[in-house]
Structure to design on (308 residues):
């Protein structure tokens, strides 16, 4: 009965601590903490008092909890630490405070995300600088093989990508799907991001697990300026993915006439066939009117080659 009573008392004080934090009532928070009660307070979902203070953006409460010996590294039920929460909630001042208290920078949550990866996913520029300055590795990967750079590229955060590159992030790391930051940037047509990655040495010919290159994705998506940048960086104009699709065949399937012209001028092979035995002209005929412009262009180039 005594043990049950202690548990009940602990639950009561845990609730009191967390309720005080949610309400922003620092006076109500002082009483249990001063007696060493509620230091490991959690709610029914496993969220600690310290994490609640961070989520509420209450720097003073965070300070009080840390001074009362709450660990800066105790995670919630998903493995997210206070530092991770500060990064994802854009709480820069709290993040700095946790770093001063020597919070574990590289600690991961249940899917392998660190505070830096979360900062990249949430476009938390200030946190990225603070974390890397304190020794966070920009190339740590999560369970899916994503780095902070890959995460930022997927979200389309060009400014974050540039910051990470300037701070030493490696541009050619591939995730579990084989995608690099460049492949993801090209896929979504992020011109300035692609330029920044190429300027820092990103390989335009890296392939993902389906053998897609950045150029194949850019051609498929109709991202003309990205295609131009990739061609200037000597991307392989005749690369084929596992389905046999080359950049030119992609333009045929999606009616990308201007890009088809750029590819042909760079020596794209019109005779390449996909896994079903179809070349670019065959795919144009199959697609009909949407690809009529590409077909006309291919026929002109074929006549030109025959005259040569």
């Amino acid at each position: 009965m005594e043990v049950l009573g202690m548990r009940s008392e602990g639950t009561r004080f845990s609730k009191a601590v967390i309720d005080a934090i949610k309400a922003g009532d620092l006076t109500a928070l002082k009483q249990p903490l001063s007696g060493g009660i509620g230091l490991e307070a959690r709610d029914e979902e496993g969220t600690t008092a310290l994490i609640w203070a961070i989520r509420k953006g209450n720097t003073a409460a965070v300070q009080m909890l840390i001074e009362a010996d709450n660990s800066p590294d105790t995670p919630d039920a998903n493995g997210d630490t206070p530092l991770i929460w500060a990064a994802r909630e854009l709480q820069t001042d709290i993040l700095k405070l946790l770093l001063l208290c020597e919070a574990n920078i590289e600690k991961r949550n249940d899917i392998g995300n660190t505070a830096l990866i979360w900062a990249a996913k949430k476009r938390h520029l200030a946190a990225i600088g603070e974390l890397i300055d304190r020794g966070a590795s920009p190339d740590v990967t999560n369970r899916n093989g994503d780095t902070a750079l890959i995460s930022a590229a997927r979200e389309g955060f060009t400014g974050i990508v540039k910051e990470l590159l300037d701070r030493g992030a490696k541009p050619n790391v591939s995730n579990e799907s084989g995608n690099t930051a460049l492949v993801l940037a090209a896929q979504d047509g992020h011109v300035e991001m692609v330029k920044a990655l190429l300027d820092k040495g990103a390989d335009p010919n890296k392939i993902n697990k389906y053998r897609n290159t950045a150029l194949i994705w850019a051609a498929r998506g109709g991202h003309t300026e990205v295609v131009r940048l990739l061609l200037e960086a000597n991307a392989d104009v005749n690369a084929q993915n596992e389905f046999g699709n080359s950049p030119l065949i992609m333009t045929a399937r999606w009616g990308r006439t201007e890009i088809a012209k750029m590819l042909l001028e760079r020596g794209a092979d019109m005779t390449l066939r996909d896994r079903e035995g179809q070349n670019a002209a065959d795919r144009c005929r199959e697609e009909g009117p949407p690809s009529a412009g590409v077909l006309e262009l291919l026929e002109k180039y074929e006549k030109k080659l025959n005259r040569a």
Summary: Confidence is low (pLDDT under 50) at residues 1-10. Residues 34 and 139 are 42 Å apart (CA to CA).
